[in-house]
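Exercise 3.2. Students should predict the tertiary structure of the chain below and write it as structure tokens, then compare their answer with the key that follows.

Predict this chain's 3D structure.
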Amino acid sequence: MIESIDNALQIASLLICASIAVYRAAKYKSRTWTQAFYFYGSWALGGIYWLLCLLFYNDTPQISIVSDLSWYAALIFLYMILRRVAPPEDAGKVGFWPWLGPIFTVGMAFFFMFHGEIISNLIYAGLMGLLLFSAIRRLTGGDLYNNQRFFSITVLILCLLEYGLWVSSCFWSGDTLANPYYWIDFLLSAGFFVLIPAIKKAVGK
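Answer key:
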């Protein structure tokens, strides 16, 4: 029951954020806000499929690729927003710290392979590694990305919360609030709202 409520709340959060994004996309004719709408919409579609399986089959999806494809797309759109609001002006200059992102995601992928599928974990490692690399690069890029730091920090936190969900699902189970998975997921839902002002600050509208 709690899992269904958690999923329903997150879907509602995503749909509200998607509505805000599409409104601002139409108002300002902004590609960035259009991509934000696609990000929220894609993530919501994955959650909707998951919730339908819980409600009608009383079980998590047996074919998780349906949700995974939606979440892959959401991560790609998030990276596209990051590229648009904070393009790498010095493409050849990359310090040490950004590489910690891909190193972390590859290490976690090997860990998750003991608990799940190999291919999906490799895809998530690639997408999350790209996001973390790009976010950390902009956070360590000096004054170059000052106006986009809030957005980069928000992206970094969303990625880490997602990893918190995956790790907690490996060690805890149970449909109760004693399971830290749900508390992390509540924080993730709140993070989707934080992304709205972060994008607004980054694009200036």
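Discussion points: The two ends are 40 Å apart (CA to CA). Residues 4 and 72 are 22 Å apart (CA to CA).
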